[in-house]
Amino acid sequence: MTDFVEAGRAAGTLQVVMLGIGTETFALDAGMVREIIDPIPATRMPGARPHLAHIVNVRGNVVPLADIRARFGMPVTAMTRDTRFVVIELDFDGDATLVALVADKVFEVTAVALETRQQVPAIGTAWRPEFIRSIVKSGDEFVIIPDMQQILN
């Protein structure tokens, strides 16, 4: 884990970027977010998995474009004026890898209290539990902290 995450945990909070995908609100560890950009042209990759079917050019780098709706059983929808690409950096087998994530809306950067973390309930959800690190309370709603490596793998 990054020093940033460790420092946040010591303080009892985690800095997150809140974003909407479909009807769900997700919280990404702010330490993994490199930038948030307006949608740019994407190139379809023949034979690619449905949630990683395109690539984009981000500042001269070829970056996979992930639309994780399918992984959560959500319908794919058209982009709107609120759609953003959230460029994140993940560690895959020791290599830092950039991935652009399609978000219907980016809300804010905020802190969530780690003491509110809960596991995904064993019943009542359609999500695959390995895709969810935990659920946290933010204000009056529950927010999903996804396991991006599991989702993209």
Account of the 3D structure:
By secondary structure, this protein is mainly beta. The chain has two helices and eleven strands. It has a six-stranded mixed beta sheet with strand order 3-7-8-6-5-4. Strands 2-1-9 form a three-stranded antiparallel beta sheet. A hairpin with a 2-residue loop joins strand 7 and strand 8. The radius of gyration is 15 Å and the shape is globular.
Largest sheet: 6 strands, mixed
State the CATH architecture. Answer: Beta Barrel
Element-level helix/strand string: HEEEEEEEEEEEH
What is the count of DSSP helices, taking H or I runs of 4+ residues? 2
Annotated CATH topology: OB fold (Dihydrolipoamide Acetyltransferase, E2P)
Between the first and last Cα atoms, what is the distance in angstroms? Answer: 19 Å
Per-chain topology:
Layout: H1 3-10, E1 13-21, E2 24-29, E3 33-37, E4 42-44, E5 54-58, E6 61-66, E7 84-92, E8 95-103, E9 105-113, E10 132-138, E11 141-146, H2 148-152
Parallel strand pairs: 6-8
Antiparallel strand pairs: 1-2, 1-9, 3-7, 4-5, 5-6, 7-8, 10-11
